[in-house]
Amino acid sequence: MARVLSGIRSTGKLHLGNYLGAVTNFVKLQHEHQCYFFIADYHSLTTHPTPSNLHQHVKQVLVEYLAAGIDPEKATIYIQSDVPEVPELYLLLNMNAYLGELERTTTFKEKARSQPDNVNAGLLTYPVLMAADILIHQADYVPVGKDQEQNLEMARKFARRFNRMYKTDFFTIPKGFNFGNKLIKVPGLDGTGKMGKSEGNGLYLSDTNEQLRKKVMKAKTDAGPTASDSTVSEPIQNLFTIMEIVSKPEVMESFKADYANCSIRYGDLKKQLAEDIIKLIEPVRERIEEIEKDDDYLKKVVKMGTEKARESAKKTVDEVRHLIGFRPF
Ligand code: TYM
Asked: Pocket of ligand 1, candidates 9, 108, 140: which has the most ligand atoms within 8 Å of its Cβ, to mutate?
């Protein structure tokens, strides 16, 4: 039985990228493996949410995780800030994380550029906190999207470094994974780049069918293929990429064939894509609407998750403290 850990920052509603990159298929693993799903609320503090937004966003991710099918009796679902062992491990790992390597992280460099007025130390040590999240449960596998590949590589590096420094093989070296053997990147519908919360191009799990249809129909396209130029432009490739994930293979093939013989109608492609996305999202949205009303249930879930997560986290931190040389008097 492997240990699998998936995390999502509490910065708002989940979009299709989060769902496909880190949740949907992994929920199935809870039946055979020891799965941890958690809400990274400390990580969200790097952008200074207001107190009421912070709580609202944590609740939203919790509800949406549950709506995606997590069974709190089988898997462990918890909130990062409910587990004080996580910041303790973060502190200990920080002692072996070096300024140069943290400054060179792509996500840090991007944030430093996009929010020059708020280049805080939390941003710099973001990968260390993420490593603490992963190593605290000795995760073997971490479902993540392509954008988290480098952070995951840092977690592997910190684990190996600790093992080397203390001459131990205590830390499991975590592996990133997704179905198929590549990490995925769900693109946005605005032509370039990934679907993301800060990009404002999300298809959200809580969107109504009408909202989803509207967003898909507005997706960027191009003037269409011609006999002399059949290179696929980025906006069209992005639509195909999403279609490949959400639609049946034969549907995908038929549109690809239409593209190849220049008879494709982008309007038809988008209509089909919208309906296939709705098929995936609609049942989740219906469960979101039910679960979000049930505060007693949410309270019970969080209590149970915190207890299970702390039990596993405490074991790790106790051993790490011992390896480092802390001894009780
Ligand atoms: P976050 O909250 O930005 O995203 C949560 C998960 O969704 C994936 N994801 C995507 N996958 C495919 N295509 C996309 N367009 C897309 N957008 C987002 C992300 O790769 C991620 O797996 N730092 C993390 C949260 C975190 C974490 C962890 C994750 C904190 N500690 C420990 C795993 C393990 C983050 O900001 O993800």
From this structure: 9
